[in-house]
Design brief:
The chain is an alpha+beta fold and 98 residues long. Helices cover 42% and strands 16% of the residues. The chain has 4 helices and 3 strands, in the order βββαααα. α2 crosses α3. The longest helix is centred in the middle third of the chain and has 12 residues. It is elongated and about 50 Å long. The N and C termini lie far apart (37 Å). The chain binds zinc ion. The site of zinc ion (ZN) has 8 residues, from loops.
Length: 98
């Protein structure tokens, strides 16, 4: 992980914070903690989740299968919503309440 402030990869380990490895940026001195929750997923994975959802699976079911946090998946659908037709969006938003 690179420095969130200056994007430099020049860092040194700075001990543990609440069990997570923390780093100090050698470039700007910013201290930050590695965050395994904000993992990035490939477009393929996102598309697969979208496909599963459109085939009738709920967010929590998809989360169980993919082991991705369901709030992360919901965020993707919000992003993807701009790319979908109005009809698909209505379907997704109406099913979200189940
Ligand atoms: Zn920095």
């Amino acid at each position: 992980m690179d420095c969130p402030r200056c994007k430099s990869s020049q860092k040194k380990k700075n001990g543990l914070r609440r069990g997570k490895q923390s780093f100090k940026c050698k470039n700007c001195g910013y201290q930050y903690v590695e965050n395994p929750i904000s993992r990035t997923y490939s477009t393929e994975v996102k598309q697969l989740c979208l496909k599963m959802y459109l085939n009738g699976m709920g967010f929590r079911a998809i989360a169980r299968v993919t082991e991705i946090d369901h709030t992360t998946i919901i965020n993707w659908f919000k992003e993807a919503g701009e790319l979908l037709s109005d009809e698909s969006q209505d379907l997704i938003m109406s099913r979200d309440t189940k």
